[in-house]
Amino acid sequence: MQINLITGISGSGKSVALRAFEDAGYDCVDNLPVTLLESLITTLEKEMSERVAVAIDARRGQSLTELPKILENLRTHHQVRIVFLNADTNTLVQRFSETRRRHPLSGKTKQTQAATLIEAIDKERNLLEPLRTQAHSIDTSNLPAHALRSWIQDLLKDKPLGLTVVFESFGFKKGVPSEADLVFDVRCLPNPHYDKVLRPLTGKDQPVKEFLEQIPEVISMEKDITQFIEKWLPHYIADGRSYLTIAIGCTGGQHRSVYLVARIADHFYAKKYLGALQINFLSRHRELDSIPAVAI
């Protein structure tokens, strides 16, 4: 059975993610007590279910300490994947303010509302940290709901075994993705933004591609990043990782980083590393995928 555990920080989009799994045909259970997880899987096995998504969050409290052991037991007979949704604290505070919802862990102290909310978020991060370190993490700080649904749909296309490598473009002016394992800064390359014709286009458009292809430094940067990844991927596999996010950033995340992510991802697809090394490759563009901006 394919078991997907959806967890993460409250307000980061777990409900959106769970609906994406439901739309993909998974049996979905929200807010399941940790102690009932194994019983649920046993029941679904009897019903011949093949795919399930379960959402568990910090409301389960100290019982979360039992979850790593439970997942280890389930992995002996099933394919288990953890999807961890995250966002920076400022974004979470803004979302709770806009929706006027209470944080699940709020009300534990008699301090001011703002301090209590931040304290609850920090407590939640500490409770969920053991799960985050072994999960596929998605930072939704600058990600609208439609983009998160799309990223989940892409994730469901990958193979269940081996390492999943995500190539992600981003703009430094909106911050480095929190889920990034490797970050490459390409802001030193000539910027198409300063060409009035190219400014409204993206790294996916042919005129921008032709502009960047003529610059030796761009070709050299692409080669260096590709060779670095090729050299170290076997080591990440040997380390037992399930997910590796490689983030490539320029200033706005519109031209240079988008172009290089597409080029480097195509390189690995073309060389068929997917089958040879049991690696699943995904590519995404944080800033482009965030248009239009729709709140999660």
Automatic annotation (TrEMBL):
Name of this protein: UPF0042 nucleotide-binding protein
Domain RapZ-like N-terminal stretches: 1-157
Record-listed GTP binding positions: 57-60
All copies of domain RapZ C-terminal, residue ranges: 164-288
GO MF, one example: ATP binding
Entry superkingdom: Bacteria
HAMAP family named among the record's database cross-references: RapZ_like (MF_00636)
Keyword terms, alphabetized: ATP-binding, GTP-binding, Nucleotide-binding
Keyword tRNA processing appears in the UniProt entry: no
